[in-house]
Amino acid sequence: MDSKPKVMKFFFPLLLIFFSSSAYAIDFRGRLYSRAKEKGEAQQSILIFETKQFLQTDANGYFEAKVPKAGEYTFRVIRTSGTQEFKKNISSDGELVTIYTDKVEVPKGGIVVSGEKEKTILSRYKVRQDEIKRMPGTLGEALRGLETLPGVVAPPFGGGEIVIRGADPNQNLYLVDDLPILYPFHLLGLNSVVHNDLIKSIDLYTGAFPSRFFNAIGGVIEIETVDSVKKTGGMASVSLFSTNAIYQTPTAGGKGYIIVAGRVSYLENTLGLTGFVPEGIRLPQYHDSQVKVVHNFNDRHQISFTSLTAQDGFAARLEPRPVNDPTQEPPPFIAGARIALGRGFATQGLRYTWTPGNKFNNRITLIHFDPFNKVNGQLGSLNANTIQRFGYVGLRQDASWEALDWLKIDFGSEYRLLDFDISGTSVRLRNPSNRAPNPYDTLNPAFESIPVSDKPRSLYTYGYTTVKMRFGNFSFEPGTRYDYIAINRQGVWGPRSTVAYKFEGIAQGTTIFAGAGDYFQFPNSIAWSSVSGNPGIGWQKATKYGGGIDQQFTQEYSIKAEVFKQEFSSLIENDPNISQVFGQNPDNGQLLSQPIVFNRALNFSNRGTGWSHGYEVFLRKQNKPGTMDWFGWIAYTWSQTYRNPNRYNPALALPPQPILSPVENRVLYEFFPNSREVFYDFDQTHIINTVYGWRINESYQLGVRWQYRTSFPITPVVGDDGGQFRNPATGQVFFNRQESVFINSARLAPYHRLDFRIDKFINYEWGYMNLFLEVINFYMRRNQVGTNFDEALPFSSLNPVPQNDFSTLQTPGGTVIPLFNVGLEVKF
Amino acid sequence: MRINRNQMFRVFSLVVFLFLVNSCQLDTSIAASDANSQIYAAALFKSRECGGGIPQITIAVNKVAQRNLALCTIAILRTSCPFSSFPAICLSIYDKKPLGSIPPFLDFQWIQNQKL
User: Which of A623, A642, B20, B45 allows an S-S link to A631, with CB 3.0 to 4.6 Å?
Assistant: First the structure.
């Protein structure tokens, strides 16, 4: 079957939008504008060279003209003192073309990576909002641009979270103006929870980060929002997934400003109507809002209020309805299942900033953070229904003091009251080594229910300092912090330090740098709950080392290379073997009849360990502001990451062990852990990201991105259970996969993908419209991100099959097509 | 001749357009060895469930339409015991064209139990 005509039907209108050049005359308005005088140039003569048409500007510098077709035209401004020549692109009717006569226009949306000298050079990459906003392959989300930076891995099925130098995504810290957010992306990872145009810049710390950041053993993503609003304006953007808008205006005669932004999704009304979504699945619904209000009383006193909220929901109910065509039935494993997920957060920050002079600055912030997670689901005999709230109220202080020319001190502290509320029943694996658990096995259940209702409260407090010393070209920045959590009376010291030296003489300068430190993260609410977890659970720890060289060749070209090693210890593991000799019965319903239980399960332990090492190279070219030069970068990362849960795994025992009693299991677990160090789930040896951007003219911008990654490791499927169980909801047999004991021992083909994006700008007097077309997976590679075992069929050479990533789109006729994303943004 | 930015962009657009028009088409048929592997696995399960051995096996000799193989495999898994012969629908694996949709007046439960 030839499906090309259908493909043509699909592609043609999209391409027409962008590449059409009008074959008819175009009427447009122009304006001659002096940036120095900040007004239009009146009564000036202009010649359009190609059409030999003479024009005259009015009192405000405007003129009206007509050209035979779209294209580039030469405008000569004829003055008594001489002529000026400008080339401008005319593309559509009604367009406003502004000719700046005395200052070169800065192109909108250029993608340039910039460095910042004031912050640490070690393991930090900074990008501005306008540098990554129009990056291809990001679905228009600036935050996704972080995926192109060194040391960063983007898991294929995550919600947009990133793995930084081998740390789990939930070990990273996201901050928006130093305020917490629960998650950076909404469900499915299509949209972020912070509006693109609220973001001023993003600093990504991949290694040994400064002491003011805490509660993270991965990386830190520091998002700084817009800190100045000079005129009223806004932006609205529409896409297939959601609509978002932002409005900002100065207040109190320019002494302050207000920014309001938000997003609402409507996947159910777009993708949900295509017929590709299986019956019973309600696509995620989400919304978010951001409010920032700032007022400067004078140069010394500033007060600000920030509110960040987001909420996501998803539900599915796979009814086992009889279907005459068995290939259309829901998978037998999940037929009859239902799930409802909800999550969200609300963050409010009230901040007072005191700046008595150039050498001292102090901030006091009152923070209220209220995140929640809800799960309500049923699969087979499993029933989970939990609601978790794990918020806090905190009072934080951060100061910076330049004591001497060569000495600067940062210090701060926080007093935080954690207030957690967990209720319901959760489900957990009885044996976490079992990588193919069966929820329908009632004889030897793979899961068990645990009550999780608890309301723990605790004080959490910390203090930190960093001393920044500079002697000529040498800098030394030792720092430390102390964190204390009262509920388990645990305090941890986190010393850290960086050194750097800049050599003059080689081109624009060479800097060598190195750093190391200890980093900690406290456990989540369920892990240290006295009911569902282990009250004695400790902090997760990472020791980070890194060093490298930064060479500035010219103002435009530079290269940065780093080596790193990270050692993870005390990682929190879901641990079915850890127990205390006796303890209070966690089941409140049995407190009277059986208040004390023996071998009380603690469920979580700190036995996990791991490490990662590697090197990164970052070669970049910036374009000079005001030019339409090309720009881009190449980021290469080589790394290896390992994990070991340090448990006893009966499948690895030699000789094979008979079925052991719980006591024997605990003894072996305590004294003979036999689990092996294996590749981490998201280990990728080679990662290459290349980004290229070119502002073609005032009307068009082109972005191209190519990425190459070694496959994630996978655990091979080696068989099935022989079809021992049937789903009671349908009566159909299903085959539970059996995985190799050699975890993460195989890899699929490498992943590589080419994306591009074309932006068309249509300028008007009131602002501009930005129409964009994004083509993801341009050369239509079937990139594999795992394997998919179909439980309806037995293990064979066709089952499991490689699973392609989201960008591999296949029409019903079998044609593979790129993923298209179109959108419209209006700035006023 | 000097090529300006607009001309370069047009050339790029043309390359993109031609590339997309010639987008590749996936062959969804299944190799005979893979088809045989799946049919054998299904037959092995059924023979164990029903007791007794695997009946004289249906062997694919050419590429098999994906849909036809799926219907044959499911029919084997669901056919009633005793498993003395293969469901008749498995003959479709010798047809290179995918079977159409099952008409509403035919019940798949009836189809799966029609044996060779």
Answer: A623
> Is B58 within the bounds of a domain?
yes
Give me the torsion for CA of A714, A720, A725, A731, rounded to 10°.
90
Question: Which residue's structure tokens are 């005088």?
Answer: A37
Q: Quick check: B87 and B79 in contact, CB under 8 A? A: yes
Burial tier of A368 (Cβ tally within 10 Å: 0-12, 13-18, 19+): middle
- A630 interfacial to chain B (CB closer than 8 Å): no
Q: Which residue has the higher pLDDT, A572 or A4?
A: A572
Instruction: Please report whether residue B102 resides in a domain.
Output: yes
Give residues with Cβ within 8 angstroms of B55, minimum separation 6.
Answer: B43, B47, B83, B84, B85, B86
Is residue A47 located within the same domain as residue A164? no
- Would the CB atoms of A794 and B41 count as touching at under 8 Å? yes
Domain of residue B92 covers: 28-112
**Residues of B82-96 as b/e, b for ≥16 C-beta within 10 angstroms?**
ebeebbebbebbeee
Reduced to 3 states (helix: H, G, I; strand: E, B; else coil), residue B17 is helix
On whether residue B97 sits in a domain, the answer given is: yes
Checking ipTM against 0.85, whether it exceeds it is no
Of chain A residues 311-340, which have a CB less than 8 A from chain B? 324-327
Within 8 A by CB and 6+ apart from A668, the residues are A648, A660, A674
Cβ–Cβ < 8 Å for A703, A692: yes
Residue at A409 is within a domain: yes
Calpha distance A287→A74 (Å, rounded): 47
The reply to whether A37 and A182 lie within a common domain is no
Is B101's Cβ below 8 Å from some Cβ in A? yes
Distance of CA A158 to the CA centre of its chain: 10
Q: Does B88 touch chain A (CB under 8 A)?
A: no
Helical (H) or strand (E) element with A340: strand A338-357
Given A716, A739, A762, which residue is the final one in a domain?
A739
Nearest by CB to B9, which of A324, A700, A778?
A700
Q: CA angle at residue A443 from A315 to A654, to 5 degrees?
A: 105
Interchain CB distance below 8 Å, A19 and B41:
no
B3 in contact with A, Cβ within 8 Å: no
B77 and A793 in contact by Cβ < 8 A? yes
The CA distance from A211 to A205, in Å, is: 12
In this structure, the answer to whether residues A563 and A640 fall within a common structural domain is: yes
Residues A188 and A277 in one domain: yes
Residue A196 shares a structural domain with residue A61: no
| Residue with token string 């025992």 | A653
Per-residue pLDDT tens over the stretch A445-461: 778 777 788 888 899 99
User: Per DSSP, what are the bridge partners of residue A244?
Assistant: A237, A263
| Domain hosting residue A24, numbered range | 19-100
Do the Cβ atoms of A180 and A347 come closer than 8 Å? Answer: yes
Same domain, A62 and A210: no
By the 8 A CB rule, do B63 and B94 touch? no
Query: Is the domain of A478 the same as that of A538?
Result: yes
Of B10, B38, B71, the CB nearest to A793: B38
Looking at residue A328, the DSSP 8-state letter turns out to be G
Contact B57, B43 (CB under 8 A): yes
> How many domains in chain A?
2
Alpha-carbon gap, residue A774 to A754, rounded angstroms: 11
Distance CA A133, CA A687 (A): 22
Residue B114 scores a pLDDT above 90: no
Q: Are residues A92 and A160 in the same domain?
A: no
Contact call for residues A511 and A482 (beta carbons, < 8 A): no
In tens, the pLDDT along A121-137 reads: 777 887 776 677 788 88
Confidence of residue B18 (pLDDT cuts 50, 70, 90): low
Among the candidates A739, A759, A778, a domain finishes at A739
Distance from CA of B66 to the nearest CA of A (A): 11
